[in-house]
Amino acid sequence: MSETISPLAPAHIPELPEISGVICRIARARYKEWDRCDLTYIELAQGTTVAGVLTKSKCPSPEVEWCQQALSTGLARGLVVNAGNANAFTGGRGKEAVQLILSMVSNHLACAEEEIFVSSTGVIGVPLPKDKVETGLNSVFIAEPCSWSEAAATIMTTDTFPKMATTSALIDGKTVYLNGIVKGSGMIAPDMATMLGYIFTDACVNAEFLQEMLSAATSKSFNCITVDSDTSTSDTVLAFATGQNDTPALNSFKDPGADAFQAALSDLCMQMAHLVIRDGEGASKFIEIAVTAAESDKSAKRIALSIANSPLVKTAIAGEDANWGRIVMAVGKAGEPADRDKLSIGFGGVTVARDGLVVPDYDETPVTTHLKGDEIDISVDMGLGHGKATVWTCDLTHGYIEINADYRS
Amino acid sequence: MSETISPLAPAHIPELPEISGVICRIARARYKEWDRCDLTYIELAQGTTVAGVLTKSKCPSPEVEWCQQALSTGLARGLVVNAGNANAFTGGRGKEAVQLILSMVSNHLACAEEEIFVSSTGVIGVPLPKDKVETGLNSVFIAEPCSWSEAAATIMTTDTFPKMATTSALIDGKTVYLNGIVKGSGMIAPDMATMLGYIFTDACVNAEFLQEMLSAATSKSFNCITVDSDTSTSDTVLAFATGQNDTPALNSFKDPGADAFQAALSDLCMQMAHLVIRDGEGASKFIEIAVTAAESDKSAKRIALSIANSPLVKTAIAGEDANWGRIVMAVGKAGEPADRDKLSIGFGGVTVARDGLVVPDYDETPVTTHLKGDEIDISVDMGLGHGKATVWTCDLTHGYIEINADYRS
């Protein structure tokens, strides 16, 4: 947790409503040498359904492997999040720590281990110490319920502000609520979730259908953000539906309110994903990159991510330099269909280059003004087809180097 | 050209021998507001053969497109290199500038335009001004021959030192010489050459066979280096064989001396590629990453490049932090076959993690000492098969941000 809050942090922190069937508690497990809560425990009402999207890393943490397995039942009663230690690449001892959590929490709740979900975040390669797990859990079980903002703060590691989002949807004339808490500021890139994010709703949603809706929502949000192109071994997004609101169950898009719920879920994921970028390590600019007229949506997304991950583009934006040549470079290296002479590039709605060269009488003034702001829009028209994609990133600054050249110590 | 020379610059600059059939000249075309030579013109004896490897960027410069076309003849008489302006993404006006060069130089040498090779390097998006091209060429045509080091200095842009290499080979008991000059320090990544590099030899080599040997040499050298994962629109490596040394012509590996020549060419390419990394923008550490026991060589190279391109790995090395967890992360995100529990990782020959977790009684002292040096070795044993690859990169420091957040102005 840094002492300086990101300059891109939202001015307004939303007030999150209670979600019936969800109780948050926090405690000090002291996974690191710090005096803060670092263990989050969330109890979920019986019958809560769950869906999840997990890292595609080939070296995932044991927590991720467990969540993948447990998701098959579609039911959840508890969530444990450890901050300060990712417990990744820790061999058998890492697995034992996860097993201890499953055993203690399932005993406490008198439920199946498969109904317990676990995440850990922080340094890789150090096994989660079992004694701290045990002390932490015994303490959190008897802790008073805490607020959403306290839970959001407790899952933080290098984050500079707690990240929360909320929205609602109407199902059968009745309001259901969706809350999200999320952490992450570095090691952020598709695929997939690129951080830890948890979504809670009091709606009643069939687990398979929740999975379908969550996958759709993450593909346009969490999977469209990148801070540094680095994908974590622990990335996790889980969605829990307690069903405690007595609205009709959602089983498919044929059900009334399902479209509204999907829209709300997608909106919540987008809010959460943007919060992560707004806390990108060292970020001073929030950058939206929209690629249009590519050969396909998939091609557009690859091109957009090639731009978003280019250190030269990211440093140019940090330097408030309308260096569209670096955008051409990033388009060219994406390996996707491109015709240099059909390409158009704009900043903040002003077209800088069209059909392969700078526009006649190019006036840099409005572009420079746009780049001095902290919300940067880059648009790329490939001039080829109908494919489009939008991704979000932040600039690459001295702050990133400061944070990451001295993170572990 | 920076005022501070890279701390990784070689202490010893080699003395390059003359290559019979090659004459270098330089002049001031003043492509930028600077007082230095920025136009290099190299005359090649009649009968010189040529081979080349060019950027895979989908948005290449007109120079690259021209070189690709001209390579089909296999013959070369002249090379022009413009520094300070890449002439990329400049539409018809950029092509006209290339055409002017071809026309002037082919007239001057009384040869075909297809025997003239052209490269430009520097800012993208500004057409090479034809008046400066004309003045520059007229001036360079009458300039005195210059040294190899003057030519190497003239092709520089953000480079902090001129880059030269030399070697020799025995063909039929007689020595042939190979010289190389190269520029590049940012926008460096496969595929392919990732900078401008020119190789000259007095050996007599069939053009097709020269292409075969050059492709083999670049795949293990220029295509195994990365500074920032960004691939330039202008990347070019050209090899010229004047045949002025009266050794027997090399037409295939069956010819005596062909193996020796390939070895020398590969060595020269490696020297040149390493020089580029030693001038990586902001670099303070030269990093070698060797991946072994992967499923295939191709898989090993992808994993090695995933590590080499990871901002989190590169900043950890800058911070002299043996953060092998970030290496696991980079292995995991490569998308190649990996088994977390078979992975071993070492720094400077000391194994830090084996079979999925930190080694028993891990002593960080020798690793920390290694990381304080400026030559860092990272080894990754995948524990799967026989695939291996070695790539080179540098660390990511404040220097990179300084150079690139304010490059164009």
Give an overview in words.
2 copies of one chain form a homodimer. Chain A is of the alpha+beta class and 409 residues long. Chain A folds into 2 domains: 22-278, L-amino peptidase D-ALA esterase/amidase (4-Layer Sandwich); 286-404, Ubiquitin-like (UB roll) (Roll), CATH 3.10.20.340. Chain A has helices at residues 62-70, 91-109, 130-141, 148-154, 207-219, 258-278, 297-308, 311-318, 324-333, 365-372, 398-404; strands at residues 22-27, 39-44, 49-54, 78-85, 116-123, 163-171, 174-183, 196-201, 225-226, 236-241, 286-294, 344-347, 350-354, 357-358, 375-381, 387-394. Chain A has a 7-stranded mixed sheet with strand order 9-16-11-15-12-13-14, with helices on both faces. In chain A, strands 3-10-8-7-6 form a 5-stranded mixed sheet, sandwiched between helices. In chain A, helix 5 packs across helix 6 (258-278) and helix 7 (297-308) crosses helix 9 (324-333). The first copy, chain A, starts with 21 loop residues before the first strand and ends in a 5-residue tail after the last helix.
Give a brief rundown of this model:
The structure is a homodimer of 409-residue chains. Chain A is of the alpha+beta class and 409 residues long.
Number of domains of chain A: 2
Q: How do the SSEs of chain A run, as a string of H and E?
A: EEEHEHEHHEEEHEEHEHHHEEEHEEH
> In terms of structural class, how would the helical and strand content of chain A be classed?
alpha+beta
CATH class descriptor name of the largest domain in chain A: Alpha Beta
User: Any idea what the CATH architecture of the largest domain in chain A is?
Assistant: 4-Layer Sandwich
Compute the average pLDDT of chain A: 89
- Radius of gyration of chain A, whole Å: 22 Å
Largest sheet of chain A: 7 strands, mixed
The CATH topology label of the largest domain in chain A is L-amino peptidase D-ALA esterase/amidase
> What percent of the residues of chain A sit in helical stretches (DSSP H or I)?
25-40%
Parts with pLDDT < 50 across at least 5 consecutive residues of chain A: 189-194
Biggest chain pair contact, residues each? Answer: A-B, 71 and 71 residues
Taking strands numbered 1, 2, ... along the chain, how are they ordered across the largest sheet of chain A? 9-16-11-15-12-13-14
How many β-strand runs of chain A? 16
Strand content of chain A: 15-25%
Number of helices of chain A: 11
